[in-house]
TrEMBL record:
One of its GO terms (molecular function) is nucleotide binding. Pfam families: Pribosyltran. This is Hypoxanthine phosphoribosyltransferase. It comes from Terriglobus roseus (strain DSM 18391 / NRRL B-41598 / KBS 63). InterPro entries: HGPRT (IPR050408), Hxn_phspho_trans (IPR005904), PRTase-like (IPR029057), PRTase_dom (IPR000836).
């Protein structure tokens, strides 16, 4: 078996931006808010792979109203921090969402291109309602006008890893959210 290559920047050397406890607190608060907003209703959480998988897993368990979840995947033609801006759907919904209350769950709302694309796409399926939940929001980076309905943390324009978020597919498993050194991006 080939020796695995270590990440060139160990996660332990990256500064913690939000601890496991801080994340848990916010996810529980957002789950509570969603439970109040959708009292008596059923909702479908649509996670955006792969970044939102961990946030969705925690959020779904923090929501007390009846919920199911599904995933979509998009490719944004970029590696690491850079992206060309073109978004393409590479995995569609498995279950119909027509007439359902849908919350799209994303890891980071950055330029807004991904969520604008997905919002348009989801609306074509005629859901009863459509909202957006994101773990992080970088408002300074927005290129298109879109806001999330539920946000755990607003952050400045810094590159982050952990809690599902990657740099070149690494670090998604890091339990907290950390700042990735800008000179390494
Ligand atoms: P947007 O289309 O620019 O809003 O891009 C959103 C996507 O870019 C997110 O779902 C992430 O996959 C990725 N992204 C943006 N900022 C970061 C970051 O700081 N760390 C990791 N991924 C990021």
């Amino acid at each position: 078996m080939a020796t695995p290559t270590l990440p060139f920047v160990p996660a332990s050397s990256c500064q913690v931006l939000f601890s496991v406890e801080q994340i848990r607190e916010r996810v529980i608060a957002i789950g509570k808010q969603i439970s109040e907003d959708y009292k008596g209703e059923s909702i479908v959480l649509v996670g955006v792979l792969k970044g939102a998988a961990i946030f969705l897993a925690d959020l779904a368990r923090a929501i007390e109203v009846d919920n199911t979840f599904d995933f979509v995947a998009v490719s944004s033609y970029g590696k690491g921090k850079t992206s060309s801006g073109a978004v393409k759907l590479i995995k569609d919904l498995d279950v119909p969402i027509e007439g359902k209350h849908v919350i799209v769950v994303e890891d980071i709302l950055d330029t807004g291109l991904t969520l604008s694309y997905l919002r348009k796409l989801m609306l074509q399926h005629k859901p009863a309602s459509l909202k957006i939940a994101t773990c992080l929001d970088k408002p300074e980076r927005r290129l298109v006008p879109i806001e999330a309905d539920y946000v755990c943390f607003k952050i400045p324009n810094r590159f982050v890893i952990g809690y599902g978020m990657d740099y070149a597919e690494k670090y998604r498993n890091v339990a907290d959210i950390r700042l990735f050194p800008e000179d390494k991006v």
